[in-house]
Specification:
There is one protein chain. By secondary structure, the chain is an alpha+beta fold. It folds into 4 domains: 30 residues; 155 residues, no CATH class; 156 residues, no CATH class; 84 residues. The protein contains 11 helices and 22 strands. The strands form 5 sheets. Strands 7-14-13-9-10-12-11 form a 7-stranded mixed beta sheet. Strands 1-5-4-2-3 form a 5-stranded mixed beta sheet, with helices on one face. The protein is elongated and about 110 Å long.
Length: 460
């Protein structure tokens, strides 16, 4: 009975193996490493890593020549790209790997290219073959690789989620764990639409988070220009840079030192802008920065830091486009940093910058309103209403809001009689006489009720 059951079980196993053999014998068998890649492959950037991988496989792999079924599973493909380009790390470090023999070739293949997974943005730990202790070496190499990635990402901001925009990038593809096949892929920049909402607020308020939006949503740096005429009738351009940690690092590590050496005579770009300037001077600085970035891009490490911060020549070109689109712009207009803090009407031009997108520009309107209530005028010196010729007297007045003196232009007008006749002027009188002094706000951020007093100047 037992022998019969065993025989039946063995027969069933043999039948299954025979069926499986016949089944697979009728299927086309493709040896690993037979992938054929197309030349001139190009795709458009997408923030979704899975979409990028799918597009890359479709653009790169010649399915017919490779013998891969049209209904392939995307998970069967691995796609990686060479971070910084071929041998870039060895070039940066100044290492001549050819002098190291076969071990040097292994370094070039495993380390210098730094193959990055197109989906995860992380490097696979390279495998270096050793006679003994392979598992120990693999563990050490893995920890070193992770440490390098974390250091670069946390310190310099170097690291990608997936392949970025760029022409003729070195990539490699494999199918079902087979051999890697290397080729090139161009990733074209995508387009972005920028929307700027029209808004109305007081000078001491800030625009909301959704004042500028983009389609698609991504990690954009938004540079905003406000051009307009203040209530003081002063034409002004306000420039509001984005709050970006990587940009700050790029400014500190690369841009400021290079600018100080090449153009600033020791003065950094940050220091130059804080001094205040005009639009014409800013345009000169932008042209200088374009040259500076081209010089910095000649060094692979600096180029990587700048690109990961989203800083490149295209960014500056986008800023220039944004400035040129501001209607009525003039070289002698005042240039200030930040959101407008003076009441007035402004045209808003927002420029969205990301190294993977063509610069996008949107426009809107911002009305910065004056405070109409809660503001009062006060005399700087209440005792100045009576003085003697020759005394140093402060006849001015200031605007007070919520208990604090504000930066507000307050004018005065004097009307009175002197020995020479009628006196009518905005300048404080110096001759003996009785005058009616009126203080009133002019432009600025506040509208207040004028104040009046009688001023007497006695003979000395």
């Amino acid at each position: 009975m037992t022998r019969t059951r065993t025989t039946r079980a063995l027969a069933a196993v043999l039948a299954f193996l025979l069926f499986a053999t016949l089944l697979f014998a009728g299927m086309p068998v493709r040896a690993a490493g037979e992938l054929v890649l197309k030349e001139g492959a190009a795709i458009t950037y997408n923030k979704d890593a899975s979409v990028m991988k799918a597009d890359a496989v479709k653009a790169l792999v010649d399915l017919d020549a490779s013998g891969i079924p049209a209904d392939y599973d995307l998970a069967d493909f691995d796609v990686e790209y060479a971070f910084l380009g071929a041998n870039a790390v060895a070039d940066v470090l100044g290492v001549d790997t050819s002098a190291l023999g076969s071990f040097g070739e292994d370094l070039v293949e495993k380390w210098a290219n730094l193959w990055v997974n197109a989906e995860t943005g992380y490097w696979d730990a390279p495998t270096i073959s050793v006679p003994i202790g392979q598992s120990i070496v693999d563990g050490i190499v893995s920890r070193i690789t992770t440490g390098i990635q974390d250091a670069l990402e946390n310190t310099l901001g170097v690291g990608f989620n997936h392949i970025q925009a760029g022409s003729d990038q070195i990539v490699r593809v494999r199918y079902q764990g087979g051999d890697w096949v290397t080729g090139t892929l161009t990733v074209n920049k995508a387009n972005v639409k920028v929307n700027v909402k029209s808004a109305s607020l007081y000078f001491d308020q800030v625009v909301g988070e959704n004042f500028v939006t983009t389609d698609p949503e991504d990690d954009f740096m938004i540079f905003t220009f406000y051009s307009g005429i203040t209530t003081d009738l002063a034409p002004t351009i306000y420039f509001q840079p984005p709050e970006n940690e990587l940009l700050s690092k790029a400014m500190e590590i690369v841009i400021d030192p290079l600018y100080a050496r090449l153009y600033g005579n020791g003065q950094t770009l940050t220091e130059r802008l804080r001094e205040g300037t005009t639009v014409g001077e800013v345009m000169v600085i932008v042209n200088q920065l374009t040259d500076l970035l081209q010089k910095a891009s000649e060094t692979p490490l600096f180029k990587s830091i700048l690109e990961n911060a989203g800083v490149d020549v295209d960014m500056l070109n986008g800023l220039v486009d944004g400035m040129q689109q501001i209607a009525g712009i003039a070289d002698n207009w005042r240039f200030a940093i930040g959101q407008p803090d003076r009441a007035g009407a402004y045209v808003v031009s927002a420029v969205a910058i990301n190294r993977n997108y063509n610069p996008g520009i949107g426009a809107g309107v911002l009305l910065v309103k004056m405070r109409l209530f809660g503001v009062s005028l006060q005399w700087n010196d209440v005792n100045a209403k009576e003085s003697t010729v020759g005394d140093q007297v402060d006849f001015g007045a200031s605007a007070v809001y919520e208990g604090k003196v504000q930066k507000q232009t307050v004018k005065t007008l004097f009307v009175g009689l002197t020995s020479d006749g009628l006196y009518l002027s905005g300048d404080a009188p110096t001759e003996a006489g009785r005058y009616l002094e009126t203080a009133f706000p002019l432009g600025g951020n506040f509208l207040a009720i004028p104040i009046v007093r009688v001023v007497t100047i006695n003979e000395g």
